[in-house]
Amino acid sequence: MTAARAPAGAGGRRSGTGFAAGGRAIVGAPPPPVPPATINRDASGRATVRAVRLEEPLRVDGVLDEGVYETTPPFAGFVQQVPLEGAPSTERSEAWILYDDDAVYVAARLWASVPVSRWVANEMRRDSFQTVQNEHLIATFDTFYDRRNAFAFMVNALGGFIDFQLTDEGNPNIDWNPVWDSSVGRFDGGWTVEMEIPFKSIRFRPGADQLWGLQLGRHISWKNERTYLNPVPISGGPGEFRVSAGATLTGLDVPAGNRTFEMKPYAIGGLASDIASGIRNDGTGDAGIDVKYGVTENLTADFTYNTDFAQVEVDEQQVNLTRFSLFFPEKRDFFLEGRGIFDFGRGAFFGGGGGGGGGRRTGGGGGFFGGGDVPIIFFSRRIGLEQRDGVSRTVPILGGGRLTGRVGPFSIGALGIGTGSESTVGAEPTAFTVLRVSRDILRRSRIGAIYTGRSVALNSPGSNEVYGADGQFAFFDNVYVNGYYAASRTAGREGDDASYQGVFTYNGDLFALQLDHLWVGSNFNPEMGFLRRADFRRTFATGNYAPRPRSIESVRQFTFGGSLDYIETGAGVVETRIAQLRFQTEFENGDRLGVDAQRSYELIPYAFPLGGDVSINPGHYDFQDYYASYSLGAQRRVSGTVTFQRGGFYDGTITAIGYRRGRVELTPQFSLEPGLSINRIELPIGAATIPLLTSRVTYTLTPRMFFGGLIQYNSSNASLGTNLRLRWEYQPGSELFVVYNDTRDTSLRGAPLLQNRAFIVKLTRLFRF
Q1: DSSP string for 198-232
Q2: Environment class of residue 419 by beta-carbon count within 10 Å: exposed (0-12), middle (13-18) or buried (19+)?
Q3: Nearest Cα to Cα of residue 469 among 486, 452, 481
Q4: Quick one: pLDDT band at residue 13, thresholds 50, 70, 90?
Q5: How many CA atoms lie within 13 A of 728 on its CB side?
Q6: Residue 252 — φ and ψ, nearest 5°?
Q7: Is the pLDDT of residue 7 over 80?
Q8: Are 347 and 339 in contact (CB under 8 A)?
Q9: Number of C-alpha atoms within 13 angstroms, CB side, residue 344?
Q10: CA 59 → CA 7, 67, 73, 195, distances in Å?
Q11: What pTM value is reported for the model?
């Protein structure tokens, strides 16, 4: 059995601005609890929690049978965010925060008033988004107590788990994969969970006695209820994102000299075939290493040599019915960790009222993860991947380093990468550099600057550089103002080489409004970023009215919305005008119904293909279409969103059906994720049917070991692709990957012809000192 004791000074002391712990003032929260109590709440329900030191390590097995759970009182009193803001949770929850010299522990006992068969628990795989829709507990730690950034750890009732970083109360980086452990158990009337988070896996201010922010949240999926330890406004979006609404955690006495030092070598071998080049079953082998070194407790340097990303899943195919480039997200581990620090110009996500989900995407921004009209100044896929004249190739990454973390109120990011040459696309050896710094100001605001540079420009002699400054200002609970200014420097593209944006957002629950103005010059050229369109000026406005009818038991919220998107060229010629009206119903069971009507005007300066022999010719087009969708809640064995679109499309018509984010639960370990998009386009010059079919299969043996398969058929490029992966994290941070890829040409009659094929085995081993 283990025992616990309270550290000296656990009760805190009064300071001139409130109560203090660890030499820092506790503002907007009650004083620390007096032992043996572990929680203190004020009249508004805000909480301060006391962490309890363990005399010996906890056995993380999910059973909760150690003596500490008998001798230390738990804290409780979770309150709803939805459906009834501020009301007590309808299900009982008790939790503990414990720690020793190596780790902080989260433990909870969670009651459920229905049998296990009613729980939504159907995902075991690590980092699966489906876990968010399951019965789960999430813990977020604001380790710098800055009320805006946090580390988050989520575990569902089956033991599936997710970890992610939050930057500026949003921008979740779910590809952050620290070393930690968790386990779940069952008792008569509910389930239990234990998490062990090593201090070396997170960053915090130096000093033994710490003051952190803390939020615990529970999703009771079978009744679509979200409850939190500290109250979260219903308009605040996901409660784990609203870091400023978290409780305060005191009593932590962290070890001195908690700097990270990790080495992660890898070895890889495989066979590859490229039919067009006459290469068949060519054997290859290689090795490399990543090193992580803690410069301080909260500033980390990463180094990589002979970097390889063979284990990365292939991109999901997309249908492109526009003249603009498609956006594909970054999936390579080295570039994903700490990416939030490098985000530039990103403001509040517009999700007022029902938060979207019923209709097609509106708004232009960069989208929540990029890809809209707003330029992305730093897009890491520009490193090691080159595309010219429609040909895309991987360029070898020779090595590089990264420095990320915090120094006082400053967040710092620096990246330097060197790549080799690739003759197919004419890529020369290039040095890539990114410098990013931002400073926290006021309560939830920040200002910052960025520099990106590549030593060899893509289509010009010399180098390419971009400089920029940005700011995000948060007022009250739901008012945000953000903007940026950036300029590029490229030989032969002088003048009109800047871009700026200003955005006002009000994200209330009943009312929401966003006003956005964006300008991109004709010579603005962020070659380490993503630029969807250039030489334009854009004004955008959108608003929602979202009442919650109490007289209709089956409906949680209605959302009525509208938007206007107006884009001119730099010369003042109208290029795009889109007016939209939309309506959405969110039901109490989690289903959503959405419809919208959209009136569009497009000026097409040059012809672009759609598929087959059909293309859109230059000209002016004015057309209108309608869109409907129905999203099935996650509690169903078959979930996903069914869509239907019908109406005008340039000088013709479009009829489209789709099924996206589909999931069919066969067992809690075995699922299918089908996707479908069929677009029938009829124009005066001809007609085309453009199908895209995807199917993902996942079998999870344990939360750290799964087999996944992805099959994709895309008629627009006449390809059939297969990606099969076995991923086994045989110990935290160390992994084995077995990968098979092939691509086949479907343009000819008969069986699809093989174009390329690869079989790869990769082994990594983490050494932590």
Answers
A1: EGGGS---SSSB--EEEEEEEEEGGGTEEEESS--
A2: buried
A3: 486
A4: very low
A5: 9
A6: -70, 130
A7: no
A8: no
A9: 33
A10: 21, 11, 19, 10
A11: 0.88
